[in-house]
Amino acid sequence: MNEQVIAVPAGPSRQSELQTTVFRPNGAGPFPLLIINHGKESGEPRKQTRERFIYMATAFVKRGYAVLVPMRRGFAGSTGNYADHGCNMTANGHAQASDVLDTIDFARRQSWVDSARIVVAGQSYGGLATIALGTRDVPGVRGLINFAGGLRDDADRCDWRAQLVQAFANYGAGNRIPSLWMYGVNDSLFGPDLVARMHAAFERAGGKARLVEFGAFKRDAHGMIASRDGAGIWWRETERFLQQIGMPTSEVVAVADAPTVPKTDFARVDDIAAVPYLSEKGRAAYREYLHKMTPRAFAVSPSGAWCWAEEGEDPHARALAACARTSGQPCQLYSVDDYVVWQGKLASSSTVADSGGAGTGSL
């Protein structure tokens, strides 16, 4: 995947830098380009972790694309200030889209990017920014993909749903780039009624967008594209859209699978009594873990500390990292997904923090 993290100049006079993850095939290119725009978690944007969208990025690198995932100003390791326009959802989308536009301008100047074949995607707040970008004439951008796009006002200061509908109407009036929209029926932020209103407002104002409403995805469709299992939902419609806008869809690059933790014969995964080091509280936590979504992982320590992680990227690394924070001794994975990986001794492991469900505890 040739992953690297670079700084992309952005903002007025290009005084800010966007922490941007790059994935690309081997070779000099030029490669068609996908830009993926992230959402906003609750809380301080600077505390948000760097997004990778590894599953979607992998699918596109296999098809010969370079992929950029920029963290916008004020998020994660990017400099500059986060732009907050409160309940003015139209302004919020345009403010975030300006960083996306700066990323595109940067990419078009790189020799390894095919500046005439670009597609822009976004999830949640990134989806809102992506559709806002579509009001501008952006050379080389052939299509936009909106995954669960929108923005919720956590403070409930206004009728943010009505403001979202108005924002999409405003974007529809200025729309210049075709788009694909994908929302699930069990999206925790933007339910089917709101999605129907947003899409209708966009099209009535003159926008061009095809809406795909898929069924329930796990507990919450809002995080579908960040899930290992999401490609089974999004790829078929995305492939159709890419073909319509003249972008490649055939696999042309071999990408090695991520290393897996080998299964052992120590015990059945549901044999709670076999898990070492745990107190009764820890065994109750493991019983709960057995009902978590895959991908998932459970880590333990001789100190009695434990942690589980589910969904998102690298749950086994996240479980180890969280366990290490609560334990005075090393931690090791006990189980991954639906099988036991315990080897009867502690082994060293690198850890990577990332988003997703988790639980921690100790004696």
TrEMBL record:
<dbReference type="InterPro" id="IPR000383">
    <property type="entry name" value="Xaa-Pro-like_dom"/>
</dbReference>
<dbReference type="Pfam" id="PF02129">
    <property type="entry name" value="Peptidase_S15"/>
</dbReference>
<feature type="domain" description="Xaa-Pro dipeptidyl-peptidase-like">
    <location>
        <begin position="17"/>
        <end position="149"/>
    </location>
</feature>
<dbReference type="InterPro" id="IPR050261">
    <property type="entry name" value="FrsA_esterase"/>
</dbReference>
<keyword id="KW-0378">Hydrolase</keyword>
<protein>
    <submittedName>
        <fullName>Dienelactone hydrolase</fullName>
    </submittedName>
</protein>
<dbReference type="GO" id="GO:0052689">
    <property type="term" value="F:carboxylic ester hydrolase activity"/>
</dbReference>
<dbReference type="InterPro" id="IPR029058">
    <property type="entry name" value="AB_hydrolase_fold"/>
</dbReference>
